[in-house]
Amino acid sequence: MVAVGLPDARARRSRATRGRRAAARVLPIIPAFALIALFFLGPILWCLYASFTDVALTGATASTPHLIGLRNYRRMFEDPAFRQSLWLTVAFVLGSAVIGQNVGGMALALLMKSRSRIARAVVGAIVVGAWVMPELVAGFVWYAFLSDDGTLNAILHGVGLHGKSWLYAMPLLSVTLANIWRGTAFSMLVYSAALSNVPDDLLEAAAVDGASAFARLRHITLPLMRRAVMTNLMTITLQTLAVFTLIFVMTGGGPGTKTQTLPIYMYQSAFKFYQLGYGAALAIVLLAVGGVFSIVYLRMMREEV
After folding, report:
1. Which domains are present in the chain?
2. Quick check: helix, strand or coil at residue 149?
3. Are 204 and 242 contacting, i.e. CB atoms less than 8 angstroms apart?
4. What span, in angstroms and rounded, lies between the C-alpha atoms of 229 and 194?
5. For 14-163, where are the E strands, in sequence order?
6. Which of 177, 107, 95, 105 is nearest to 141 (CA)?
7. Is 246 helix (H, G, I), strand (E, B) or coil?
8. Could you give the CA distance from residue 205 to residue 216 in angstroms, rounded to a whole number?
9. How sure is the predictor about 267, in pLDDT bands with cuts at 50, 70 and 90?
10. pLDDT tens digits, residue range 79-88?
């Protein structure tokens, strides 16, 4: 009986020890998890619930909303304004983040790698200065630069060229360039850190073997930076999906609806036309779009080079 009982006692003590160790690992993160649930998961769940109601900012449904099922979602996908805003959002993200900030950040990181410390400090200060500038201030800067009486037209008139109303003639391109200018620094910093981990002797060996600079970039540098590229793409894509203040300050979603991306359309539906339920449904779709982009990037990150 004693011989049989000893292994059972040891097993119970071992399980108790593992339980205490697990509790010691879990307990410190409970406050963080509670804060995440309160300030992140809670609003998402409320937004999901509100998207199935007719809740509004004013009127009878402001205090007593009713469940209306999928009516907001059916209305959304039948709404030409939603389809246009979805297309504009995708175009803005692709042009501003996937192409503009990503390629611009990579180009700046590559150019600064072989420059002197003073040149890197000057360029870095200029680019990072645009990044740390508040989005509201950046929007006013670009509005002042591109407006009818702005800096760009003054420069063009000074050299004898004819200016134009850029915010009306090319509104989507204007807000895209402004967001590229403001956000490229993040990609530059990510890629500068990743480039520092690429072995110089490997690049020198490829150069000795006759590989061109483009070949070294394509076959050595980019494959070694693949995870950094995918991580950066996912981060800047999600950041760009949520851009609101920059566009709102520069164009207000106009002229007409030519820069009415999903965040602008969601704000106008919820707080201009007081349809909180419909705005919540738009927010859920915006969250789903971000999830789709994230899944694509995560799958690409897991694929073999």
Report:
1. 21-49 (no CATH), 79-302 (1.10.3720.10)
2. coil
3. no
4. 9
5. none
6. 177
7. helix
8. 10
9. very high
10. 999 999 999 9
